[in-house]
Amino acid sequence: MSLSVANDHASLPIAYRLYLPEVWARDPDRRRTVGVPDGIRFQTKLQIALGQIKSALQANVSPAAVLMDAGYGTDTELRDGITELGLCYVAGIQSSTSVWAPDTAPITTVAHAVVCGSAPWRRGLGDAFAIATRR
Q1: What letters, b where the CB count within 10 A reaches 16 and e where it falls short, cover 29-50?
Q2: CA angle 53, 22, 30 (to 5 degrees)
Q3: Contact at 8 Å (CB) between 115 and 79?
Q4: Cα distance between residue 110 and residue 93, in whole Å
Q5: DSSP conformational letter for 21
Q6: What is the separation of C-alpha 107 from the centre of its chain, rounded to a whole number of angstroms?
Q7: Per-residue pLDDT tens for 6-65?
Q8: Less packed terminus of the chain by CB within 10 Å, N or C?
Q9: Residue 78 has pLDDT above 50, yes or no
Q10: In the chain, where are the structural domains located?
Q11: Contacts for 101 with CB less than 8 Å, ≥ 6 apart
Q12: Which of 44-58, 65-79, 110-124 shows the lowest per-residue confidence on average (mean pLDDT)?
């Protein structure tokens, strides 16, 4: 897993973390065989992603919108965690994900969503709009 910063001219990875599946994390023989250090514990991809973002903010990396593919964009807890950090995000989501702006009905089968402010996914809060919708 990685976290990168980008501007109009370049993209630079600033954090890397190898994801260790839980089955590997809980298997001492497998850990020993491949050399996983004792201090490395299982973390979900959500925990790793939020940790990388929080570390970047603590290191005074300029805050900006978080971009993520559908593998992460469908995770309500991750979207909410990013919102709680005061960041906007652009997320790829799966076609089965429902999104809606305040005071509107859900729009289903959306290709991408952009959110700034409180995440509208479950509660209908915040400013959101969907792009490239298909029905």
Answers
A1: eebeeeebeeeeeebeeeebbb
A2: 120
A3: yes
A4: 7
A5: -
A6: 21
A7: 989 999 999 999 899 999 999 999 999 999 999 999 999 999 999 999 999 999 999 999
A8: C
A9: yes
A10: 1-63, 65-135
A11: 120, 124, 127, 128, 129
A12: 110-124
Does 85 score more than 90 pLDDT? yes
User: Going by DSSP bridges, is the β-strand pair 127-133/66-68 parallel, antiparallel, or unpaired?
Assistant: unpaired
CA distance 110 to 95: 5
Render pLDDT for 99-113 as a digit per residue (tens, 0 to 9): 777 677 776 554 455
Locate all alpha helices (DSSP H) within 5-75, ordered by sequence: 22-25, 28-34, 45-58, 70-73
Rounded distance, CA 52 to CA 2, Å? Answer: 8
131, 128, 117: which is closest to 80 by C-alpha? 117
Structure tokens at 87: 């960041």
